[in-house]
What does this fold into?
Amino acid sequence: MGPLLLTTSQVAALLQVSRWWVYDHGEDLGRVDLGGRHRYLRERVEEYLLERAARPPNHRVTSASPRQSSRRKPPRRVRLLEPATDSRPQSERA
It folds into this structure.
């Protein structure tokens, strides 16, 4: 029996996924936040593996919350400022 809490890297290695995938699925994997660090309950990670093993091979997992697309948003276009005009009366201009 190993430790009760696993690091993000340990979970990623165990599930053979990226660390970012582990962050995205933290709720499903029993994430615990400890002083700004993420740890995962070994028992919940093992349950997740058993659930996945029991599914048909082509079964896709859907989440209750919509996930953000990994595509980047196009850059925002910013309207250029109009050239500054001198609003002083002509008699005051040098």
